Amino acid sequence: MSNPYDIVLASGNAGKLKEIAAILEPLGCRLHLQKEFFSESAEETGLSFIENALIKARFAALKSGLPALADDSGISVDALKGAPGIYSSRYAGTGNDEDNNQKLLEELKDLRSLEERSARYHCAIAFVRDAADPTPLIVTAAWEGYVGFRPQGSGGFGYDPLFIVKGRNCTAAQLPPQVKNLTSHRARALLKFEARFMALNLGYGERA
Ligand code: ITT
Questions:
Q1: What pLDDT does residue 42 have?
Q2: Hey, is 142 helix, strand or coil?
Q3: What distance in Å separates the CA atoms of residue 76 and residue 58, rounded to the nearest whole number?
Q4: pLDDT of residue 199
Q5: Is there an atom of ligand 1 within 6 Å of 76 CB?
Q6: Which pLDDT does position 206 carry in this prediction?
Q7: Whose CA is nearest to atom 29 of ligand 1?
């Protein structure tokens, strides 16, 4: 059986990987990148963040032989009936963050007040001990905000330059990384994950 403290992070998104590692590293897990084991991507055929996170986690566990953790996330805009949602990374069809942001600005160009541009990031985290794990650990969280009128800031990734954080007068891309990693959808989901992971009693903490 593989060592339960070795976890493969089932993501090819550099921005996500940086954030997940920053939050999980203090847990003492030995984190591996999926590219150490395989280069293919799982087919994200689910209709929800949870389904896609689970598909990616199972695929990575199958390919690596290790426990795997996946993140499926995206931005849902109320005025667009929740779009782009699970299709956030593929919204403009090019896989390019700037193109996605431009398309979102274009779709919302007639909405002149921030209130009409309400949105939230969603994050689903799935953890499986092996590819056939019948009791995967799944947590979700959201982060409320608005789609701004122009990109601002250079931190984060994806839609962060457009995402104005509710209660703060700035975009997610203008937040210091430590602040995003304490407050974001991913941070909140991973906090829940941490508590549930500890409760799995995988022998965490017994290793030197
Ligand atoms: P993996 O499946 O390999 O993890 P991906 O980028 O394809 O990478 P998703 O299908 O979960 O992952 O799509 C997530 C997209 O949602 C991401 O590409 C961004 O466009 C957006 N997104 C999610 N979290 C974000 C965040 O914290 N900041 C900015 N954009 C985010």
A1: 96
A2: strand
A3: 25
A4: 86
A5: no
A6: 43
A7: 158
> What's the average pLDDT block by block, 10 residues per block, for the chain (208 residues)?
75 93 85 95 97 98 97 98 98 96 98 98 97 97 98 97 97 97 96 90 51
Active-site hit among 6, 71, 72, 110: 72
Instruction: State the DSSP string of 98-141.
Output: HHHHHHHHHHTTT--SGGGGEEEEEEEEEEESSTT-SS-EEEEE
The pLDDT, as a whole number, for residue 28 is: 77
Ligand 1 in reach of 156 Cβ (< 6 A) = yes
Question: Atom 30, ligand 1: which residue's CA is nearest?
Answer: 158
Contacts with 110 (C-beta within 8 Å, 6 or more apart), sequence order: none
Measured between alpha carbons, how far is residue 184 from residues 31, 46, 95 in Å? 21, 23, 22
Per residue in 51-73, pLDDT tens? 999 999 999 999 999 999 999 99
Is the distance from the beta carbon of residue 66 to the nearest atom of ligand 1 less than 6 Å? no
Give the alpha-carbon dihedral of 17, 50, 128, 207, to 10 degrees. 50
Measured at the alpha carbon of residue 48, what is the angle toward residues 44 and 54, in degrees to the nearest 5? 60
**Distance of alpha carbon 57 from the chain centroid:** 13
